[in-house]
Design goal:
The complex is a heterodimer of chains A (about 200) and B (about 475).
Chain A (H helix, E strand, L loop, with lengths): L1 H19 L21 H17 L1 H6 L6 E10 L6 H15 L3 E2 L5 H13 L19 E13 L3 E14 L5 E14 L3 E2 L1
Parallel strand pairs in A: 1-2, 1-3
Antiparallel strand pairs in A: 3-4, 4-5
Helix pairs in contact in A: 2-4
Chain B lengths: L4 H20 L8 H9 L10 H12 L7 H14 L3 H19 L4 E2 H12 L11 H17 L3 H35 L4 H4 L6 H5 L9 H14 L2 H14 L4 H14 L15 E10 L6 E8 L5 E8 L12 E3 L5 E4 L1 E5 H53 L13 E10 L1 E9 L2 E9 L4 E9 L2 E8 L1
Parallel strand pairs in B: 2-11
Antiparallel strand pairs in B: 2-8, 3-4, 5-6, 5-9, 7-8, 9-10, 11-12
Helix pairs in contact in B: 4-5, 5-7, 7-8, 8-11, 8-14, 11-12, 12-13
The chains are: A alpha/beta (about 200), B alpha+beta (about 475).
Chain lengths: ~200, ~475
């Protein structure tokens, strides 16, 4: 009987202590491999950006072209043709940052055009800014190249397995000549399998 | 303290009973789901300030089910209601929960102790104790309607992703279901349960199920996505989906025209004369019409005498196919009273629901047989332990607790229909008529563009919604 009582107390304390604990929070490595689900994740984003930027910057004609100058580029939206709601702007942001940090290209930011225009209007028309020090209209540099791409996926699933294949394509086109100067591709395959037992 | 084991057993039973009863009072274990659904079906009205109080209370009530074991089911209903109230952001959140749960199930472990507990509870009560996990056709509709949410919010790329997901599900379920049925049949054989004698109850279903190619091939979703792809310029996708819709509705002239038109746009020559193409200063209108409510499952209850004089009651869900609702159509006229056409049915959702139930039957029969056995054992045990009164009480419990699993998404339409026509550009006034119901719909037609109109006919009123690209 004593033993039973002891057991009951033990179980009860276990149950209660489990309830009292809050969620566990910890910091992790932002570049660590993440395999929580087969969905598009941070590791995919990082490998895509790293591969494509390396590919672009090591492409011989590009190295040659950027040896003496820093051409201006703009990044267009990346088309999401997958079956997941992926923030493709975040991928282009990473790609753009990496290219910019290499010091080979400069960028015009099309996502900030409206804000820039508002600021210029303010400087010109509000009467609050010294006209001598105001930034003049019509002096911005036009982009020479456009970077764009698309992302597609093939998903297959049966009772026990899910297989996802992503293909990310990026292209760089010369806006004046229309010639595609570079294209890069990154493929990713992920497979998820059911485990037999879980709590 | 010395505890009397019999006393302990009695306390145990009493306590378990209170827990079960209190825990399940709001769910479908003891209250048939279609009864609960009546209340929120009535909330399906167009956004009208007078009924906003009803909407609010129903929506709040449904939102409370977010954490319940049947959350998927309630969020499907809520997402549908909020969508028809044009609360797209809210509806998106509801459907997202359903989609997340579906995706969790995809790779959930084969044996889960948490679900085993529910299976165990179902052995002593009924199938309603098993958390609702959704059917294939419901999953496709979830993605289909989620696409409308993204579309309504102006996120066309989001909508295209949901249409792709719906297509993926149609593909996946085509393979998945067949093996699942075979598995359940095998299990039934192992347990030596004769499926054929019991499924005589459902023999009437086949004629209805025959009306659709299968429960997961939803031609309405195929048609909607095809029209969407055509308007966004993805002609290849459009052609594939129109063809799949035609496969299920081989006699639909409308879809044949669509295929011929897209083929022509694609550069293939066609013999078809009528291509339903807009004139120079015309825009296209694609109309989706959803009528009524999909029928709810009803219950068939059988009481079988046991060898030792007791009674075992078993209950099955079924569809009463004799009183099947007949779908009407929607007739469209322009401001000059010229007939623009009548909608054509592409999908019979009721038939999809029937087919889906039929596919669950083998597994259900196995569970039913095991449950009848465990309840019979309970009866025998209580008879042995507590005498006649005990066995009488167990008998009553058995009869009360045995109720069929009648859960399914009930705010879905019964019939889905489509129509495509062209109008001169400018401000137009359409008149929509279905039976005695009439409503006018102002539309701004832009030349060369496609306007999508969805009209839902429920609770004796037409709810129109306009989607643009």
């Amino acid at each position: 009987m004593k033993l039973t009582k002891l057991f009951v107390v033990l179980v009860a304390s276990l149950v209660l202590s489990a309830c009292a604990n809050g969620p566990k929070i910890s910091y992790g490595d932002a570049t660590a491999v993440e395999t929580t689900t087969t969905d598009f994740g941070s590791t995919d984003l990082q490998t895509i950006a790293a591969t494509l930027v390396d590919d672009l910057l090591s492409f011989p004609p590009i190295t040659q072209m950027t040896a003496t100058r820093r051409p201006v580029m703009f990044v267009d939206k990346i088309k999401n043709k997958t079956t997941e709601h992926i923030d493709t702007e975040s991928i282009t942001d990473t790609v753009q940052t990496k290219i910019l940090k290499s010091g080979k290209f400069r960028f015009v930011d099309m996502t900030a055009v409206r804000q820039i225009q508002e600021q210029l209007n303010f400087q010109m028309d509000s009467g609050m800014v010294d006209p001598g020090k105001a930034v003049a209209f019509g002096k911005q540099t036009g982009a020479e190249f456009m970077l764009y791409g698309n992302m597609s996926s093939i998903v297959k699933r049966n009772d026990s397995t899910k297989d996802v294949y992503y293909k990310f394509t990026m292209k760089m086109v010369n806006l004046e000549t229309g010639i595609m100067e570079w294209a890069g591709e990154k493929e990713i395959r992920k497979t998820g399998e059911k485990s037999f037992f879980s709590l | 303290m010395d505890l009397n084991p019999r006393l302990l057993a009695r306390y145990g039973v009493a306590m378990t009973a209170t827990i079960i009863l209190s825990g399940c009072a709001v769910t479908s274990v003891f209250n048939p789901y279609p009864n609960q659904a009546l209340q929120f079906k009535s909330a399906l009205n167009s956004p009208d300030p007078q009924s906003s109080a009803i909407h609010e209370s129903v929506l709040v009530e449904l939102a409370e089910e977010r954490e319940s074991s049947d959350a998927m089911l309630y969020m499907m209903e809520r997402g549908r209601i909020t969508q028809l109230l044009s609360l797209y952001e809210e509806s998106k959140g509801d459907f997202q929960l359903v989609i997340d749960k579906f995706e969790q199930q995809d790779l959930a472990a084969t044996v889960e102790t948490s679900s085993m507990a529910a299976q165990g509870a179902s052995m002593l009560t009924n199938d309603n104790a098993i958390p609702y996990s959704g059917s294939g056709y419901e999953r496709i509709f979830t993605h289909h309607f989620q696409a409308f949410n993204y579309w309504g919010l102006g996120n066309v790329e989001g909508a295209s992703i949901e249409f792709r997901k719906a297509a993926l599900e149609q593909q996946v379920l085509l393979q998945k279901y067949e093996s699942e049925i075979a598995e359940a049949h095998e299990e039934a054989e192992e347990e030596q349960i004769d499926v054929d004698t019991l499924s005589a109850e459902f023999s009437g279903l086949d004629t209805v199920a025959g009306k659709v190619k299968s429960s997961f091939q939803n031609a309405y979703t195929f048609y909607t996505s095809a029209a969407f792809w055509e308007a966004t310029g993805e002609l290849n996708n459009a052609l594939v989906d129109y063809k799949k819709a035609l496969e299920i509705n081989p006699s639909a002239e409308l879809i044949k025209q669509d295929i011929a038109r897209v083929s022509k746009k694609y550069g293939t020559s066609t013999n078809f004369k009528e291509l339903n193409l807009p004139g120079e200063n015309q825009g296209t209108v694609v109309l989706f019409y959803e009528e009524g409510f999909v029928p709810a499952k009803s219950e068939t209850k059988l009481s079988l005498p046991t060898l030792d004089g007791g009674i075992i009651s078993i209950a099955f869900p079924t569809y009463e196919t004799e009183n099947w609702p007949r779908a009407g159509t929607l007739r469209i006229r322009d401001d000059g009273f010229n007939d623009l056409g009548t909608t054509q049915q592409v999908a019979d959702v009721g038939a999809m629901a029937v087919k889906s139930l039929k596919e669950q039957i083998p597994a259900m029969i196995v569970r039913q047989a095991l449950r009848a056995y465990s309840k019979y054992e309970l009866q025998k045990q209580s008879g042995e332990q507590f005498g006649l009164m005990g066995s009488f009480a167990a008998n009553i419990y058995n009869i009360i607790s045995e109720s069929a699993d009648r859960r399914s998404w009930l705010t879905l339409p019964n019939s889905a229909q489509v129509l495509r026509f062209n109008l001169d550009q400018g401000q137009r006034l359409l008149s929509l008529a279905s039976g005695a119901l009439q409503q006018e719909l102002p539309l701004n037609i832009e030349a060369g563009k496609t306007t999508f109109v969805r009209v839902v006919n429920v609770n004796n009123q037409l709810i129109p919604q306009v989607f643009k690209l």
